[in-house]
Amino acid sequence: MLSSFLIIKFLLAIAVFAISLGVAAYATYGERKVAAFMQDRIGPDRAGPFGLLQPIADGVKMFMKEDFVPANSNKFLFVLGPSIAMTTALMTAVVVPWASPVNGVALQVTDINIGLLYVFGVVSIGVYGIMIGGWASNNKYSLLGALRASSQMISYEIAMGLSLISIVMITGTMSLGKIVEQQSLGYWNVFLQPLAFLIFLICSFAETNRAPFDLPECETELVGGYHTEYSSMKLGFYLFSEYVNMFNSGAIMASLFFGGYNLPFASYFAQMVGQNWILSLIQFLFFFGKILFFIFLFMWVRWTLPRFRYDQLMTLGWKILLPLSILNIVATGIFMYMSGQIQ
Amino acid sequence: MISQYLFYFLSFVSVMSALMVVFSKNPVYSVLFLILTFFSIAGHYFLLNAQFLGMVHIIVYAGAIMVLFLYVIMMLNLNKEDEPGTTTMSKIAATISGGILMLVLVAATRSVHGMESPVADSSQIGSIENLGKVLFAENGFLLPFEISSILFLASMVGAVFLSKKEIR
Amino acid sequence: MILLQSLNSSRDFLPILLMFIVAAGFVSFVMVVTQWLGPKHKSKVKADSFECGIEQIGNARSPFSIKYFLVAILFVLFDVEVIFMYPWAVNFKSLGAIGMFEMFTFIAFLLIGFFYILKKGALKWD
Question: Does residue A95 sit at the B interface (CB-CB below 8 Å)?
Answer without folding.
Answer: no
